[in-house]
Amino acid sequence: MAYKIGLVGKPSVGKSTFFNAATMNNVDEAAYPFTTIEPSVGEAYVRVQDAAPDFDETPDPRVGFYHDGTRYVPVKLVDVAGLVPGAHEGKGLGNKFLSDLNEADVLIHIVDFSGETDAKGEPTEGHNPREDINFLENELDQWYLGILEKGIERFDGKARQQDVKLEEELAEQMSAFKTNKNQVKKIILNENLELDPDTWSDMDKLSLARSIRKATKPMVIAANKLDTEKGRENFEEITNDSEYSHLEIVPCSAHAEKALKNADEQDLLNYWPGDSDFEILNEDNLSSEQLEGLTEIKEFLEDFGSTGVQEALEVAVFEELGLKYVFPGGADGLGDEHGNILPDCFLVPDDSTVLDFAFEIHSDLGEGFLHGIDCRENRQVSGDRKIENGDVIEIVTTN
Ligand SMILES: Nc1nc2c(ncn2[C@@H]2O[C@H](COP(=O)(O)OP(=O)(O)O)[C@@H](O)[C@H]2O)c(=O)[nH]1
Ligand SMILES: [Mg+2]
After folding, report:
1. Is residue 36 in contact with ligand 1, taking CB distance under 6 Å?
2. Domain boundaries of the chain, sorted by first residue
3. CATH class of this structure's domain 139-214
4. Which CATH number is 325-397 given?
5. How confident is the model over 109-138, as pLDDT tens digits?
6. Separation of 169 CA from ligand 2 center, angstroms?
7. Cα dihedral sign, 272-275-280-285
8. Is 304 exposed, middle or buried (CB count within 10 Å of its CB: 0-12, 13-18, 19+)?
9. Which of 205, 224, 229, 369 has the fewest CB atoms within 10 Å, measured from its CB?
10. Nearest CA to ligand 1 atom 14
11. What is the spatial distance between Cα 322 and Cα 312, in angstroms, rounded to a whole number?
12. Which residue is closest in CA terms to ligand 1's atom 18?
């Protein structure tokens, strides 16, 4: 299963630029609203440490690619269109927007920290990016609240029947958010609420909706356009404000990433996505304007460690979603039937076991599961052993 990262944000914040940089597809980019009418889906990558070098091998990835010890593992990236005020009420492309959001496992909220776009995505100056952060959170919370309230109605309608459990009714109503009754119950109790919605105030409901949203729709903020002076000022201010400490905020210049990838594609320089540096191949091939631009990008990389595009993807996948990475391997050698070395790398949920991993590869492997072999240790492991990052596991089955 390929994980899906949704890029959200108001118009003109740099979603398409980020999307193009991360996928190197060519989607329209422009500084006017609603360029992206349909969400574009592309392939981006997250970096993991490849296991093959630990076995003195070079891998042959079936998907993604490998460079210098690093495996680039594919994830799906969706440029989600249609964030407008009132989307949760179906305004604008509201319903389409929400169904695209539903399909995303994790969100990257692209925020224009330069303050040069207003709430509608029109050019302005001095717009406070806090408004955009708050706006999206509120929009999502209102959407969740609406569905929570439907769940409460559903419960009230059935409450006189026997054996109707509140958490079951709410989880059923909110099933599109990939939640379940245990999670819903836990969140309700964590909020110090009784399992009786008659005792809940409007504030309680909103707060509950917010908690369910946070638990089921993890989010990273990409603080974009930090190549501007105002962007940096806003970044300093907001990341030092405890009101925003619940958020992961990644400093970002989608522009810089796009420029580096373009230049790399034209063989003007060598750049590997996410790196803290790049190597100019021949200065004579560059105009003075290009050189000046690259000097600025170099300074950006020195200040922030990277352009932030890869970083945002990886924080989303590994910190917010908490995924682990694991390679299917063979105890007698890492090649598949064609001699390809470690062709696959899987991203699996945080608490996955070796048996879960077997099912993830193929249901046949799960159903016929006998035991696993930890190929690093050359040792048999049972189905309930938890997957650790970088594991190389062979699945041994009855057939
Ligand atoms: N300074 C700066 N401008 C950016 C950056 N990313 C995007 N932009 C510009 O912001 C405008 C809107 O970008 P676009 O990707 O079309 O935004 P979208 O409407 O959110 O998809 C364009 O003029 C981009 O060149 C960035 O990192 N820094
Ligand atoms: Mg766009």
Report:
1. yes
2. 4-128+218-319, 139-214, 325-397
3. mainly alpha
4. 3.10.20.30
5. 999 999 999 988 899 999 999 999 999 999
6. 38
7. positive
8. buried
9. 229
10. 14
11. 14
12. 12
